[in-house]
Design goal:
ATP Synthase, domain 1; ion transport; ATP_synth_F1_dsu/esu_N; CF(1); Single alpha-helices involved in coiled-coils or other helix-helix interfaces; ATP synthase epsilon chain; elongated; 2 helices; ATP_synth_F1_dsu/esu
Length: about 140
């Protein structure tokens, strides 16, 4: 079975490097699936889950805060300010962030930047979705 080299990189460090038979990522225009020998591509990513299917059937799950996806015929690189293995996400912290962002959006007298509150809400919601998907695959 053909494979593709995958790198998940955050601003601070390389999070994961390995091979996969398929990579799924949250592009701005919708989820994209990348297989070996895919045409070159450069696209922006929105906050969400990156999933790497491996040759042995295992899947690796990561949460990203957005970023860029670069595809070459034999390599996929995900560049993100924040990238975390989905298993390392803190659900309680994500729920708290989501609730705080929702309160900030409702509080019209707050000096909180509206765009920042929306971005925080999107990111927290994406983290919670990634955790839910990870939980479903473990069942």
């Amino acid at each position: 079975m053909a494979t593709i080299q995958v790198e998940i990189v955050s601003a601070e460090e390389a999070i994961w490097t390995g091979t996969g038979v398929m990579v799924f990522a949250p592009a701005e225009m919708g989820e994209v699936g990348i297989a070996p020998q895919h045409a070159p591509l450069l696209t922006r990513l929105k906050p969400g889950e990156v999933r790497v299917q491996q040759e042995n059937g295992d899947e690796q799950f990561f949460f990203i805060s957005g970023g860029l996806l670069e595809v070459q015929p034999n390599q996929v690189t995900v560049l993100s300010d924040t990238a975390v293995r989905a298993a390392d996400l803190d659900e309680a912290q994500a729920l708290e962030a989501q609730q705080k962002a929702e309160r900030d959006l409702q509080d019209k007298t707050s000096k909180m930047d509206l765009a920042k509150a929306k971005a925080e809400l999107i990111q927290a919601t994406a983290q919670l979705r990634a955790l839910q998907k990870l939980r479903q695959t473990r069942r």
